[in-house]
Specification:
Helix content of chain A: under 10%
Largest sheet of chain B: 7 strands, mixed
Strand content of chain B: over 45%
Largest sheet of chain A: 6 strands, mixed
Helix content of chain B: under 10%
Number of strands of chain B: 11
Radius of gyration of chain B: 13 Å
Strand content of chain A: over 45%
Shape of chain B: globular
Oligomer: heterodimer
Radius of gyration of chain A: 13 Å
Shape of chain A: globular
Order of helices and strands of chain B: EEEEEEEEEEE
Number of helices of chain A: 0
Distance between the termini of chain A: 41 Å
Structural class of chain B: mainly beta
Chain lengths: 112, 115
């Protein structure tokens, strides 16, 4: 079945460091891919998405490129801030069933 | 525009007691989801509604969990009786029926602790 695998956390970085959170997936067909973020004390919210191969989603300085050849959707940011401290979830939606398949989440802590 | 509203934010109960969670989705969103999130895990779908109809409840433990969405707006998720293993965060989300993009709008969640 469809699945998402994320790198395990927690990830701890210093402010202005480069961030990569790996995400790979297994799916039949051509899924849409998402990164959601959960800030402390808040609900999950969509960070960015990509709906077809080679699409690049971007938001708030974060980017992720839909790589069909490597079945990956890695999240990157060139210079993280303390305010980026959160849990990041990779997810996919395959087919028209409106069912998201979620990774386990990666906790990021950014120190000043 | 108001977001998805959930209550209560926190609930502590003894095992075998009943508990109920309430969700008010974003106005105009026909699709409503209840998810379960355990610590260190991703959300797990419990039930999805399209208007009043539960279209996917395959993961809902029906022996103790029930849900309703009367009039296709607000929804209530109930657990009776609660067990220790039900301690988790219960998330409600909504999305518009038309033009589905995969974006779900989540509430802040209801954290349940069963003692």
């Amino acid at each position: 079945g469809d699945s998402v695998t994320q790198m395990e956390g927690p990830v701890t970085l210093s402010e202005e460091a480069f961030l990569t959170i790996n995400c790979t997936y297994t799916a039949t067909g051509y899924p849409s891919l998402f990164w959601y973020v959960q800030y402390p004390g808040e609900g999950l919210q969509l960070l960015l998405k990509a709906t077809k191969a080679d699409d690049k989603g971007s938001n708030k300085g974060f980017e992720a490129t839909y790589r069909k050849e490597t079945t990956s959707f890695h999240l990157e940011k060139g210079s993280v801030q303390v305010s980026d401290s959160a849990v990041y979830f990779c997810a996919l939606n395959a087919g028209n069933n409106r069912k998201l398949i979620w990774g386990l989440g990666t906790s990021l802590a950014v120190n000043p | 525009e108001a977001g998805v509203v959930q209550s209560p934010r926190y609930k502590i109960i003894e095992k075998k007691q009943p508990v109920a969670f309430w969700c008010n989705p974003i106005s105009g969103h026909n699709t409503l989801y209840w998810y379960l999130q355990n610590l260190g895990q991703g959300p797990e779908l419990l039930i999805r509604y399209e208007n009043e109809e539960a279209v996917d409840d395959s993961q809902l433990p029906k022996d103790r969990f029930s849900a309703e969405r009367l009039k296709g707006v607000d929804s209530t998720l109930k657990i009776q009786p609660a067990e220790l293993g039900d301690s988790a965060v219960y998330l409600c989300a909504s999305s518009p029926a038309a033009g589905y993009t995969g974006e779900l709008f989540f509430g802040e969640g209801s954290r349940l602790t069963v003692l």
